Amino acid sequence: MRSLALGATLVATTTLTPLAALAETEIQFWHAFTGRLGELVAEQVATFNESQSDYTVNATHKGNYSETLNAGIAAFRAGEQPHILMVFEVGTATMMGAQGAIRPVYEVMAGDDFDPDAYIGAVKGYYTTTDGQMLSLPFNSSTPVLWVNRDALSGAGIDPDTDLSTWQNVDAVLDQLAEAGHDCPLTTAWQSWIHLENLSAYHDVPFATKDNGFAGLDTELAFNGTVQVQHISAMGEWAEEGKFIYAGRRNEGGANFRAGECALFTESSAGYAGIKSEAQFEFDVRPLPYWEGVEGAPQNTIIGGASLWVMEGHEPAEYDAAGAFLNFLSSPEIQAKWHQDTGYLPITSAAGDLTREQGFYEQNPGTDVAVKQMTTNAPTANSKGLRLGSFDQIRGIIDEELEAVWSGDKDAQAALDSAVERGNQLLRRFERASN
Amino acid sequence: MEKRVTFKGWGLPLCLIAPQVFISAVFFFYPAGQAVWQSLFIPDPFGLSAQFVGLENFEYLLGDPYYRASFITTAIFSTLVTLAAMIPALFLAVLADRLVKSAGVYRTLLIWPYAVAPAVAGVLWLFMFNTRVGMVAWYLGQLGYDWNHVLNEGEAMGLVVVASAWGRISYNFLFFFAALQAVPRSIIEAAAIDGARFWRRFFTIVLPLLSPTTFFLLVVNIVYAFFETFGVIHTITSGGPQQATTILVYKVFSDGFVGQDLGSSAAQSVILLLVVGLLTVLQFKYIEKRVHY
Fold first, then answer.
1. For A411, what's the count of Cα atoms within 13 Å in the CB-facing half-sphere?
2. CATH code (residue B163)
3. What is the ipTM of this complex?
């Protein structure tokens, strides 16, 4: 009897196992998230795997953004590439240049569920071709906003509700804060992204020629124009007078703001979760300020974050799986939850509407500032996004040159001219490598 | 006088050096050859295509004033690291050598920092000198000195030098200490009887006897400063402010892994290889003459 049961189990397992394996197509998804974001990604993947029985997604963390991109590239060279790879926005041109290594998501996702118009233009625009086809799926997108420590303003005798929508007004407030003896009136994170890339888009001036690189690899940097020079020069003066405190190239300034040391802070809208959990003071989210008097401002800001790319070289069934997963991520419920949990922008209008219906914006005032700032105006050629090769490294050059302004070694015009010239050399090398 | 062993035939000697040759071939000659080969191309990151450009990558690099400036930065950095790692090590070794009681405890404690990986050492020093929460930065502030290595180039260089040299002091200490123990007591005692005081004995007798060790450590520390300090720089300054701490090996990383410009990165590796090779040859040719074994 016992041996019979054992035999039956054996037969059952040997016949059933291959069936189960056949039924499920397994795909690999490499991402760059740890901590709370890593948990939320794992949760999304688990929900997808449980929601159906045809496909299984395996999510793997591969380090930070740069490391994940490098891991994907190295894996492709070795023929071991994942199906879905998370790439930060500055790697977009690198991925696009890799014809033969990537498969556009509009092809992979095509089917009943896929409606390209459901996606928010300002978000997807960064990742579409000039004729509007989506090459990768925006996954986590944020945009810079102004964070305000209300207590610091009151402490300096300033009305915390004062209008901070223009840099002119901010300038006046910085003066008042400095007079009141405040040590850190303004600090920033991601200086190139906020004070050059977004500044350019927001004032509808080009960051680079050829529609910021969307229209061709022969693009040249153009961020040494009047608006940018005026802004960087103003910030240089603030730095000299101790009104702008430079904390570092990444988001080091966040620690100063969350500890209550800095009154104003320009940072990604995705800083919400961190600030909310740590700040021991009243804070506000305000739209990014603009320079009054510049024609076309405020236009719209552009995004930062990452998108999901589908890599070439896999079986057709695996592309079905990838398409199903990407469509699942785009569904309103999943998107709305992601938007509310993380502070990242929703990628579809439906997810934004659902969030509003659920009353999230009323309970968490300020969380919709970024959404409005992105979507009030239809993006122009200057505000759709950036598509520049070697851009991670160009940002490094910009960081170096801006540091020269903050320390008083160079004036804004000289620093930006030099950054443009050095960046152009990298663009020319990228153009050659891609041809 | 000298003892020499001669082998009969070739079989045994070849077998004996085979493991070393194999390791050098796999871990040095093959990758170095690959780097030389890649430096002649401008490839795309995914390896889908590559253009042969001859020596153009080298021309591009040497024509770049920022790359040339990075040679000077590297020279300053490696000189400072080598000095900051060797002089304190020698001083500590001399002191530890004079100890009669509990020398073992001091020795062990002095060796500890060597166990800390460069990147971790970088983070430790960064925390101490962090402009906002750093203890040392805070005390300096109390003394009226405004520490800001985020914008001050000299302070940034000082910080990465100290962080790089710190763990290395232990390593050098170990060698100096062993060498000091090997100095014959009889010579020291003879000099003492002749009336030479401690420091005179040290400079005229001990230091010359230490020269083989000092020379070895000089070569090893320069190579360390050139290649292995990457982790410290990456964690503390990322090469900034401006380009104040961008040493050659950091530029190899940033062009190769941030810029995905593999041609330029490979060319830089080749240049770096030549520079270090040349330095080592020079050291053996000129400095080794002053070494007494």
1. 3
2. 1.10.3720.10
3. 0.88
